[in-house]
Design goal:
Radius of gyration: 34 Å
Number of strands: 6
Number of helices: 12
Strand order of the largest sheet: 1-4-2-3
Order of helices and strands: EHEEHEHHHHHHHEEHHH
Distance between the termini: 99 Å
C-alpha cells in the first residue's frame, strides 16, 4: 500500500460533508443522543473526523467520524474541524481506512475503567462519559486482583473492646451483617469519609493513642457533651418553633442522656402522679415536660 500524504486541518460546515452509505460502526439511539448532548454542551467536536476530498467529484467523504459529524449537524454547530486527505483513494483503500479507524482503538481495561468511573461524583459527568447500562453491568462484576492481599504489604490490626463495650460492638457488627445480607446500601459523600479519618487522626494526636476504637470512644464522648447542638436539625431558635413535623430526640432538648438518680426520682414521682390524675395519657409521659414548660413560660410572661 502506498503511503498517504500528510492530512491537513480544515474548518467547514459539517452539512457539506458526505456520510458513508455503509458504515461498520453502529451506535444505538440512546448512545447517539448522548453524543449529540455532549457536542451541544461542548460547542465543538473534541475528536476530529477523517475526511477524503475526492477531487474528481468534489465530494468530501467522511471515512471516520460519521456519528460525530451527524451529531454536530443535529447539535446545530455551524462549523467543525476535520483532517482532510486529497490522495487518490481506490474503493478498496477507502474501506481499509474506514475499518482500521473503527477497529484499531485498543481496549479498555475494565478495572481501570471502573476506578475512573467511580471517581465521577457529578451525575452529569457520569452521563457525559457515555457508558451505557450494559457496560456498567459488566463493571459491577469486575474484581481488582491487584488489590488482593497477596499483592499488598499489609499488617493485621486488632481493635480491642472493654467488656462494657463488647456487647454494643457485637450488636453493631450483627446489624451491619444483616444489612449486608439484605443488600442494603449506605450512601455518604467522600468528603464525609475523609472528615471521619481527619477527626480520628486529630483525636489520636491529641490523646497520643493509636487505637481506633479508643479514638472512636473519645469522639462519641465529645458528641455526648454536645447533644444539645443537634437540636438545630429540628428547632429554629429565631422563630422559637419546630422546623418540621414528626418527633425530636429528647436528649437534644435536655442536652444529656442521663441525670442524677435523686433528681430522676423526683421527676419520676411527679410524672407518676400526673398520670394517675389523668393530666397526661399513658404512653405520653413526655407531655409532662411540655406542661411544666408551658407553666414556666406563662409565669415568666
Amino acid at each position: 500500500m502506498t503511503q498517504l500524504s500528510k492530512p491537513r486541518v480544515v474548518e467547514g460546515d459539517p452539512r457539506d460533508l458526505t456520510l458513508l452509505d455503509v458504515n461498520a460502526r453502529f451506535m444505538r439511539h440512546e448512545q447517539f443522543q448522548r453524543l449529540v448532548a455532549n457536542v451541544r454542551e461542548d460547542g465543538h467536536l473534541t475528536s476530529t473526523p477523517l475526511v477524503w476530498h475526492d477531487t474528481e467529484s468534489g465530494r468530501r467523504i467522511v471515512l471516520s467520524g460519521n456519528h460525530r459529524t451527524k451529531a454536530a449537524v443535529e447539535a446545530g454547530l455551524p462549523s467543525i474541524f476535520w483532517l482532510e486527505i486529497t490522495d487518490p483513494l481506490p474503493h478498496q483503500k477507502q474501506i481499509a481506512l474506514q475499518l482500521s479507524h473503527n477497529a484499531i482503538n485498543g481496549e479498555d481495561d475494565p478495572a481501570t475503567l471502573k476506578a475512573l468511573y467511580e471517581e465521577l461524583e457529578d451525575v452529569s459527568m457520569r452521563l457525559y462519559s457515555g457508558l451505557d447500562d450494559k457496560t456498567l453491568d459488566l463493571l459491577d462484576e469486575v474484581t481488582v486482583p491487584s488489590l488482593a492481599e497477596a499483592n499488598l504489604d499489609f499488617a493485621t490490626v486488632q481493635i480491642v473492646f472493654l467488656p462494657e463495650e463488647k456487647e454494643a460492638a457485637e450488636k453493631a457488627l450483627e446489624a451491619a451483617r444483616k444489612a449486608a445480607s439484605a443488600d442494603a446500601r449506605w450512601l455518604a459523600r467522600i468528603e464525609q469519609y475523609e472528615q471521619v479519618l481527619d477527626t480520628l487522626d486529630s483525636v489520636k494526636g491529641a490523646h497520643n493513642i493509636g487505637n481506633v476504637a479508643a479514638a472512636f470512644a473519645i469522639v462519641l464522648s465529645v458528641v455526648e457533651r454536645h447533644l444539645g447542638e443537634l437540636a438545630e436539625g429540628w428547632y429554629d431558635p429565631d422563630e422559637q418553633t419546630a422546623k418540621r413535623k414528626g418527633t425530636a430526640p429528647i436528649e437534644t432538648v435536655l442536652a444529656t442522656r442521663t441525670m442524677p438518680a435523686d433528681a430522676a426520682a423526683v421527676v419520676q414521682r411527679a410524672i407518676d402522679h400526673m398520670e394517675r390524675e389523668g393530666d397526661i395519657a399513658a404512653g405520653q409521659r413526655w407531655r409532662a415536660l411540655e406542661l411544666w414548660a408551658a407553666d414556666y413560660l406563662a409565669g415568666a410572661s
